[in-house]
Design a protein that fits this description.
The structure is a single chain. The chain is an alpha/beta fold. It contains 9 helices and 5 strands. It has a 3-stranded parallel β-sheet with strand order 3-4-5. The radius of gyration is 17 Å and the shape is globular. The two termini are 20 Å apart.
Amino acid sequence: MDGTLIKGSTSSLEIKRYIERYGAAHLAGKILRNSLNSRLKLKTWISNQKFDQITYKFDQEIVTLLLKFQTKGNDLILATASPVSSTNRVISQSPILFTEIISSNSNTNLKGSKKLAAIRKWLRTHEIQDFIYIGDSFVDLKIMKNAKESFFVGNKLTFFVGKFILQIKNIQRVNASQREKQV
C-alpha cells in the first residue's frame, strides 16, 4: 500500500501529523513511556492515535491498473505491512474496492516472508493457485519470486531488480507507456 497504492508512507504521514499537533518532544516522551522500541510497536501505536483528516495521494497509474484487473474478474487483495488502523484510514478514501484486506497488527509485522505467508493462506482458503503482485521495495522481491506475475513501482530498486531479475518470474516495471501492453 505505502509507495504503491498511495504515494508516501502512512506511518510517516501519521508521525508528521502527531508532531504538528503535540510536538516532537511529546512524541519522544510517549516513545519512552510506552516502550515503543520497535518499528512495529511505534507504527501500531501511532496508527491508533486520533487524527484530523489525513488526505492520501493515490498513485493513479496503480489505480488504473487495479481497476483493469478488477474489470477482468480478478479479486483484489490488499496485503500491507501498515497497521490495521492506518490501512482503514487509507481504504476509507480509496477509489478501489478490495476483496480482502490483510494488514499488520500489534503482534505481526506483515513484511517480506510474513506477508507472503498471509497471502498464501488467503489463496489456499479460497482455492486460488496464482497471484499477481505489485510492490515497491527490496523486501517485496521475496513475494515477487512466488507470484505468477509481478509489477515493480518506482525507481528505488533499479540496481537490485537488475541483480535479481533472473530469480523473479516475469517482473515488470509499472509505467504509463507499458501499462496497456501488460493488462
